[in-house]
Amino acid sequence: MSSGEFRDSFVDPPAAKKRKLPSPTPSLTQPPEQQPPQPQQPPHSSSPATDCPAPSSAGAAAAVVVMATSNNNGSAPASTVENNTAPAGEIDEGLYSRQLYVLGHDAMRRMARSDVLISGLGGLGVEVAKNVILGGVKSVTLHDTALCTVGDLSSQFYLTADDVAAGRNRAEASCRQLSELNHYVPTTAYTGELTEEFLQRFRVVVLTLAAPAEQRRIAEITHRHNIALIVADTRGLFAQVFCDFGVDFTVYDQNGANPGSAMVASITNDVESIVTCTDETRHGFEDGDYVTFTEVEGMTELNGCAPMKIKVLGPYTFSIGDTTKLSPYVRGGIVTQVKMSKQMSFKPLAEAENAPEFIMTDFAKWDHPANTQIAFTVLGRYQEQHGRLPRPWNTADAAEFVEMCRKRAKELAIDELNESMLTKFAQVCAGDLCPMNGAIGGITAQEVMKACTGKFTPITQYLCYDAIECLPEADLTEEECAPIGSRYDGQIAVFGRKFQDVLGQLKYFIVGAGAIGCELLKNFAMIGVASKEDGEIIVTDMDLIEKSNLNRQFLFRPHDVQQPKSRVAAQAVKRMNGDIKVTSHENRVGPETERFYDDTFFNRLDGVANALDNIDARIYMDRRCVYYRKPLLESGTLGTLGNIQVVVPFLTESYSSSQDPPEKSIPICTLKNFPNAIEHTLQWARDTFEGIFKQVAENAAQYITDPTFIERTLKLPGVQPLETLESVKKALIDDRPKSMEDCVKWARFHFEEQYSNQIRQLLFNFPPDQMSSTGHPFWSGPKRLPEAITFDAENALHLDYVLATANLKAEVYGIPQQRNRDIIRKMAVAIEVPKFTPRSGVKIAVTDSALQAEENGGGEELDQDRISRLQNELASLGKPDFTITPLEFEKDDDNNLHMDFIVAASNLRAANYKIPPADRHKSKLIAGKIMPAIATTTSLVAGCVSLELYKLAQGFNTLERFKNGFLNLALPFFTFSEPIQAKKSTYYDKEWTLWDRFEVKGELTLQEFLDYFEREHKLKITMLSQGVCMLYAFFITKQKQQERLNLPMSEVVRKVSKKNIEPHVRALVFEICCNDEAGEDVEVPYVRYVLP
User: Fold this and answer.
1) What is the dihedral of CA 135, 136, 140, 142, to 10 degrees?
2) In which family does this protein belong, per the annotation (predicted)?
3) Which of 54, 638, 677, 832 has the fewest C-beta atoms under 10 angstroms from its C-beta?
4) pLDDT band for position 12 (50/70/90)?
5) Domain for residue 828, yes or no?
């Protein structure tokens, strides 16, 4: 295969801040709650898309301004507008859905009114611009006066060799591709001087690659005009971010967390009143939080009160101050946290650089931030003095640089310097690394969003970061790191030419081509992974591109929707660096694809990078990497949260060694009868959807198509056979609709049953004045007193439910849908609903344990007569002449009525129990189990992961070289630390970890296998298993033992598992339990049994 060849293969396709701004727009000076909504609109479709012309010279007197509107890689602008346009005054939730769950609508609207200037379109500048444009600001202006050079190709992924050859301006050369990222954000290239008048057009100014004098000049202007300024720079393995958001900046939401709430059990009438919450869950409040109350009976003065500052006394109690003048508390109440704004004052750059404040990122490097800040200041002086950067790994330049740092330290009255670190800074500061730019670009872009919105806490005021541990043990030579006119010169300046060859020969498997996958592919491509003949990147993802992906998966464009992610992503990074060899697959990783991802596949890999969005797949790949002893780069994001974990064979623990606790489940009785939060009603609605539109339909469909269905059903445990057959009978006989009128009738009856009849029966069993066995009101605490709903066809919510339910029922049975609301209303009004009377003797469980006992005691209903009658009734139907199609819940299709049903069903149930309803946006988040996501976190995490790749590629094998990370861009909080060492265990005097195993070559009989361990390892095997199959155990019958002992191990596996061993399987994994010579149980590694 020739260098740079692209391969495509697959198997089994499957609110603005309160400050005076120079903008004439009045709303920018108003607090967010007073601002009228304004539409975020794309450029007019009638505006022609224009390319950015190259200037005749970099020093042209007149500024060149070019507006670029996306042409979607050549597709017509009209179709793009059709794909992306949101109605006037609204945010395009289809595009921004995942980001909206991070920022919220108010912050998004504030951002959509913010103009941003980004100066310096090198590797860092393009990363910042990419993330800010994806975020959805009002406009972005790209400024640069420099022309493209070969050195820019090290990390500027939107520049090409043609741009270098043509001498194009960096901003103009990047403009078109950046504008294609988001059609709602007009993107402008500007090559003139940054005058005071020009700067006043912007809400936020970002400077990269700016000279110190220019930084100070612009910083003085922006501070005077209260324009937010962010100065960001990366130099080799060092980076610095500085923020100045003015003297009176308002943060409306410091951490982005949802306000906590709890149910009140009691409130005392005291000078220091104590509020006690119910013991269902801890309140989760902290000292200094503010709260308000609702639904309090007795002490009603608290309802809707102004926010009250609290003092936490315990996990279930807190104090709210003096309540002696309030009415006595009776019962009930909900306490809710109130988000309070915070004012922040920032020092100007000229003052801050002499008295810097730092955000710590790694407490093992406690002295690095101050030294890094000194280094960046001195670097500016060095450039002014010499007109260049220190030469890579030049001893004399480094010595002079350190001496200048000593002088700067005296100016700051700093006694001790980390001269070793400062020497390394001088040696590598000429470098330009894509992973570092990606990480810092994510941080910087998030600070831009904070400045635009007041959402989340800004950096105060310096963030200094380094990854100096990436450097090799021995110093490199100046000759090894000198530029050679290569696109990788920026990286060669740090690591040398030989290491570039190592990267080029790497073979890496990237699992997932979503948000993190796109960023990893870009980073791997830019640093030259698989750019040599023997190298290869394999990326797999079975998903197709959706519109909601475009907001953060930056390799995709609107015309790529419904195309395979892996294929489009591979083609996109191939355009960034034509040297790389990348192969795309469209496979899910799992046991079903092990015939493709087999021993041969894994054994040739140098490592795996996970870019997955679910724990099961992560655990599976982690176990595969442990088995094949391959390094694993693991990462994940959740909104502004991110984590990075590096798994190194024979050194660290694996991903599966420690896991987060499982999510707390909602008790079934709470869902069925006693919901008290919107999360409960949404889960109930989702369960209802799965029950009536999927599970029942699946049972009926299987009955029609599978002759063994009855036989299999009768073998089910408990009452399941009866319930299943009854559901089939209802689906095929009792509830089978033959027309849309039948579907509406069924939906209307279902409404009555769910929201009226069941509630009336519940209140019949437990009247409003019911007392519990402890003498307290039954309807108190988490049990909210419900009320039945009377159907009203003029009530929009009631009609929403009937319309969605009836049409989904019609879809299941293949009946043409009817979505005209007036027609559905007329049908619903004409339906006569049977009168319901609550019945005595109906049991309603109050606790899950009672419900379980009730279900376990229901065996008497399983009389054969009833089952026989059901079978006979179904048999009398004959072969149905219609089909039934189960519905798979899909949250992101706004036309399939799935979310319409969920929202209506949940909010009706919320109305039953007087729970505040949820809008469609919140309902989709909870019911659809959506993971909030934003491009900034993804960029940061993928950048950090790629820095760990540098270390793996160099063969580092000590813990202190590697960094796991946990971060939260909202706070901001960053912590990097050494990975946890693999746990060591022993048997006899032998030490082992999860990376060790017994290697046994077959074929052996079971007896020979047992004898081998007793003879060679002095271990007596007491139990032997393979997967879920028990092959041998001391307690199995003698007959079974004798049957198996003389069989080959592979035959024992076939006999017990009742499955053949697949041809691609070259070894079997056995788990063994053993006793030592003293008869004591000992923990030992697993066995890899190699087949002959």
Assistant:
1) 30
2) Belongs to the ubiquitin-activating E1 family.
3) 832
4) very low
5) yes
Q: What is the spatial distance between Cα 696 and Cα 728, in angstroms, rounded to a whole number?
A: 7
Mean predicted confidence (pLDDT) in 271-296: 93
Angle (CA) 208 213 218, round 5° = 65
pLDDT one-digit tens code per residue, 127-171 = 999 999 999 999 999 999 999 999 999 999 999 999 999 999 999
CATH code of the domain covering residue 303: 2.40.30.180
Rg (CA), the chain: 33
> How many CB atoms within 10 Å of residue 983?
10
Domain of 115? Answer: 105-253+345-371+431-495
The Cα 457–Cα 250 span in angstroms is: 10
Give pTM, 2 decimals: 0.90
DSSP for 907-953? HHHHHHTTPPP--HHHHHHHHTT-----HHHHHHHHHHHHHHHHHHH
Q: Do both 1037 and 1072 map to the same domain? A: yes
Structure tokens at 748: 């209307």
- Regarding whether 690 and 627 lie in a shared domain, the answer is no
- Based on the fold, state whether residues 912 and 995 are members of the same structural domain: no
CATH number at residue 539: 3.40.50.720
Three-class DSSP category at 249: strand
161 and 215 together in one domain: yes
What is the mean predicted confidence (pLDDT) over 1013-1039?
Answer: 95
How many CB atoms neighbour CB 243 within 10 A? 26
- Taking the C-alpha atoms of residue 367 and residue 369, their distance in angstroms, rounded to an integer, is 6
> Which pLDDT score is estimated for 61?
33
Decide if 644 is inside a domain.
Answer: no
Q: Are residues 685 and 725 in the same domain?
A: yes
Query: Which of 183, 203, 163, 242 is CA-nearest to residue 19?
Result: 203
Q: If DSSP codes are grouped into helix, strand and coil, which group holds residue 605?
A: coil
Confidence of residue 849 (pLDDT cuts 50, 70, 90): confident
Structure tokens at 682: 């949404």
Both tokens of residue 770?
């019911």
Residue with tokens 């159907």: 791
Which region holds residue 999: left if phi is over 0, alpha if psi is between -120 and 50, else beta? Answer: beta
pLDDT digits over 577-589, tens only?
999 999 999 999 9
Residue 237 has a CB neighbour count (10 Å cut-off) of 25
3-state secondary structure of 607: strand
Q: Do 912 and 1005 sit in the same domain of this protein?
A: no
Q: Which residue has the tokens 């990222």?
A: 181
- The type of residue at 415 is D
The DSSP code for 882 is S
Residues catalogued as catalytic: 669
Query: Residues 807, 819: contact at Cβ < 8 Å?
Result: yes
Which percentage of the chain shows pLDDT scores above 70? 91
DSSP 3-state of 135: helix
Any idea of the CA torsion for 407, 408, 413, 417, to the nearest 10 degrees? -80
Amino acid at 58: A
pLDDT tens-digit series, residues 479-492: 999 999 999 999 99
For 192-223, give the DSSP string.
S---HHHHTT-SEEEE-S--HHHHHHHHHHHH
- Reduced 3-state DSSP string for 391-404: CCCCHHHHHHHHHH
Asked if 205 contacts 402 with a C-beta cutoff of 8 angstroms, the reply is: no
- pLDDT at site 180: 97
Asked if residue 814 and residue 717 are part of one domain, the reply reads: yes
**Which CATH number characterizes residue 826's domain?**
1.10.10.2660
64 vs 1002 pLDDT, higher one: 1002
Which CATH number characterizes residue 1032's domain? 3.10.290.60
885 confidence band (pLDDT: 50, 70, 90): very high
Is residue 76 a part of any domain in this protein? no
Which residues on adjacent β-strands are paired with residue 607? 508
Say if CB 633 and CB 516 are below 8 A apart.
no
947, 830: one domain:
no
Judge whether 1009 lies within some domain. Answer: yes
Total structural domains in the chain?
A: 5
